[in-house]
Amino acid sequence: MASEFVEKIMADVKAKNPAQPEFHQAVMEVVESLEIVLEKHPEYRNAKILERIIEPERVIMFRVPWMDDQGNIQINRGFRIEMNSAIGPYKGGLRFHPSVNLGILKFLAFEQVFKNSLTTLPMGGGKGGSDFDPKGKSDNEVMRFCQAFMSELFRHIGPNTDVPAGDIGVGGREIGFLFGQYRKIRNEFTGVLTGKGLNWGGSLIRPEATGYGAVYFASEMLATRGESLEGKTCLVSGSGNVAQYTTEKILDLGGKVITLSDSGGYIYDEEGIDREKLAFVMELKNVKRGRIKEYVDKYPNAVFTPVDPSKDYNPLWDHKADCAFPSATQNEINGKDAQNLLNNGVYVVSEGANMPTTPDGVNLFIEKGILYGPGKAANAGGVAVSGLEMAQNSMRYAWTREEVDNRLHQIMKNIHKSCVDAADRFGVPGNYVHGANIAGFLKVADAMMDQGIV
User: Fold this and answer.
1) What is the CA 420 to chain-centroid distance, rounded?
2) Would you say residue 215 lies in a domain?
3) What is the Cα–Cα distance from 225 to 221, expressed in whole angstroms?
4) Which of 176, 286, 392, 450 is a good FRET partner for 170, with 20 to 30 A between their CA atoms?
5) Is 127 assigned a catalytic role?
6) Contact between 414 and 436 (Cβ < 8 Å)
7) What distances in angstroms separate CA 229 from CA 110, 257, 350, 402, 431, one per listed residue?
8) Domain count of the fold of the chain
9) Pair 90, 125: CB distance under 8 Å
10) What is each CA distance from 239 to 138, 215, 373, in whole angstroms?
């Protein structure tokens, strides 16, 4: 049952932000974690720090007109949410997907504030994107859209102001087009975007970082029980950047991945997705831009199950396994899915996607005491290496692959330790959700206290 304090804040949030359920969900989870902190530290409550973090510093919304290959004019909507810059320039991805709206981007920007704080790097939180769908578009259409989008966004970003990156629908191709347009308009070459190509300011390990980080985080959680990923069977959802490199790192550490998915359905490969099969998936998704169902044409022993909207659960999460790595999108594990995971022996969940588990599912994981790494901690590796890319750009220097990977591994160890320490300090040992929210909040809150009412 929510306390009076939580209810009051949530009533206020819902009144000010109607029809934004994902944003309400993200705020609710954080507010519930921070109640114990605000009781011990009334100075934060008096300074209305939490209320100020919930309110974005700036919301930018604009139209994006562009021309398709048939000569028709298309109009999309562009957004940038600049949520909090108390500890550094706004930092967070751009998402191009038909589902993009203000509420989803505010939830992502809000999560990003805590995630970026946890990395220990000096980055504030932001998020942006458009309801444009790159799926099925030609390279020229994607280029024209990206150029139109950046023709407005360029006014609001900069290497010391706001540094966007990629997210769903925004990969290397899109970052290239966006960067080219920024450089042309501003007539300067700066580290204004991360996820750039290696030849023009990108960092090694950036594409791999979110997936690798989620697996490193799972390893740290398992280590608290004296275990490792060696020999563990893993369920992975998604088949984009995060899922691909999650699978790769699980293989590196001796685990076995048996599922991957996209919006059309999922594949189950009982024999395990080895390196050869993973290379096929990468080619299929990154180069051919095909669908995951084509996997079973190449590997007929695997089974493809199409999405069935009439089902109130996702059958991908209903297989015997030890670990789950949700790496697709928000709210992909509901209460029923969470119960299926537990029934099938899963006791490690490390979130590669942002908020992939609904509140019912989260409560179930916490109640059962499994090793549950929430997205803002487990998938912070992506933005951590974005921060390392910014550092390399500032120095006009590039680190080696090993150096970046070692730094990423160390950052994930530090994030894990921060979560564990914060949970212990505030009397909720082993609760990574509370630990991540508290550790992320304290750093931002202290910076805001120091900087006055701004």
Assistant:
1) 21
2) yes
3) 7
4) 392
5) yes
6) no
7) 31, 11, 12, 21, 21
8) 2
9) yes
10) 21, 16, 20
pLDDT tens readout for residues 386-415: 999 999 999 999 999 999 999 999 999 999
User: What is the rounded distance in angstroms from the CA atom of residue 311 to the CA atom of residue 345?
Assistant: 22
| 207's tokens | 């594409």
Three-state SS at 213: helix
Express each pLDDT in 133-188 by its tens digit.
999 999 999 999 999 999 999 999 999 999 999 999 999 999 999 999 999 999 99
CB 379 within 8 A of CB 111: no
Please give the distance of CA 21 from its chain centroid, rounded to a whole number: 18
Which residue among 91, 115, 127, 232 is the active-site one? 127
DSSP 317-376: G-S--SEEE--S-TT-B-HHHHHHHHHTT--EEE-SSSS-B-HHHHHHHHHHT-EEE-HH
180 and 84, same structural domain?
A: yes
Contacts of 90 (CB under 8 A, 6+ apart): 82, 83, 84, 124, 125, 126, 161, 162, 163
Q: What is the pTM of this model?
A: 0.95
Q: What are phi and psi of 171, to 5 degrees?
A: -110, -160
- Whether residue 149 is found in the same domain as residue 250: no
